[in-house]
């Protein structure tokens, strides 16, 4: 099988993907025979499936293609892409009873992780806040503070969560109000309650 012939870096990457999915409680199945129709994918390919769609259960899929930008004459650029079938997505939403819900408004909170360890922790924090009913996004791709804060401004979020090495050591996060520029330190265990209180 392909998995038996992975290089050390690819094997470590695959394990990190599995670890993050497991930490979030996202059910997944390793499918060694999964094939996407484009040959520029690297490392991870994936499909989203839904049990309520019968034998044609795939809602969408995609994967990483870190070398594609260079193949087209551009700079080295970490990349991921995916596509969804509109009809399959509609049927899956119908099966989940989601079509009667009001459309979501813009992002309320934007995560700004500084460093690899902070990125991993922010990934879990974003999911925790989403589960609490907040609309949350975060900076991806290893952006520095300045670039990530530009992303926060563009998102329209009211608050940015800034998480660096010192914050991790203190088990806290910096909560910045993007309308007033006021910034306060909040324990990670209290972030959800504090934000919900501020956004009411």
Number of strands: 8
Specify the number of helices: 7
Bulk shape: globular
Strand content: 15-25%
- What characterizes the major β-sheet? 5 strands, mixed
Rg over CA atoms, rounded to whole Å, is: 19 Å
Distance between the termini: 52 Å
Q: Kindly name the structural category.
A: alpha/beta
Looking across the biggest beta sheet, what order are the strands in?
Answer: 5-4-6-7-8
Order of helices and strands: HEEHEHEHEHEHEEH
What order do the helices and strands come in, and which of them pair?
Blueprint: H1 8-24, E1 42-49, E2 58-64, H2 68-71, E3 80-84, H3 86-96, E4 109-113, H4 116-131, E5 136-138, H5 145-155, E6 159-163, H6 165-170, E7 172-177, E8 183-187, H7 191-199
Parallel strand pairs: 4-5, 4-6
Antiparallel strand pairs: 1-2, 2-3, 6-7, 7-8
Protein architecture, described:
37% of the residues lie in helices and 22% in strands. With 200 residues, it is of the alpha/beta class. The strands form two sheets. It has a five-stranded mixed β-sheet, with helices on both faces. A three-stranded antiparallel β-sheet has the order 1-2-3. The longest helix has 17 residues, at 8-24. The radius of gyration is 19 Å and the shape is globular. The N and C termini lie far apart (52 Å).
Brief digest:
The chain is an alpha/beta fold and 200 residues long.
Task: Please supply descriptive tags for the structure shown above.
globular; 7 helices; alpha/beta; 22% strand
């Amino acid at each position: 099988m392909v998995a038996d012939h992975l290089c050390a870096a690819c094997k470590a990457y695959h394990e990190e993907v599995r670890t993050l999915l497991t930490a979030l409680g996202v059910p997944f199945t390793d499918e060694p025979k999964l094939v996407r129709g484009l040959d520029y994918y690297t490392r991870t390919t994936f499909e989203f499936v839904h049990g309520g769609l019968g034998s044609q259960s795939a809602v969408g899929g995609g994967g990483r293609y870190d070398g594609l930008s260079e193949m087209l004459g551009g700079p080295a650029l970490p990349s991921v892409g995916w596509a969804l079938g509109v009809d399959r997505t509609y049927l899956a939403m119908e099966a989940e009873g989601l079509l009667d819900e009001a459309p979501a408004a813009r992002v309320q909170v934007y995560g700004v992780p500084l460093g690899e360890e902070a990125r991993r922790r922010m990934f879990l924090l974003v999911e925790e806040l989403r589960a609490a009913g907040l609309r949350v996004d975060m900076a991806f791709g290893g952006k520095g503070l300045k670039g990530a804060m530009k992303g926060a401004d563009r998102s329209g979020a009211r608050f940015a969560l800034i998480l660096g090495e010192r914050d991790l050591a203190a088990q806290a996060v910096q909560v910045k109000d993007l309308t007033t520029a006021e910034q306060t330190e909040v324990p990670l265990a209290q972030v959800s309650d504090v934000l919900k209180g501020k956004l009411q």
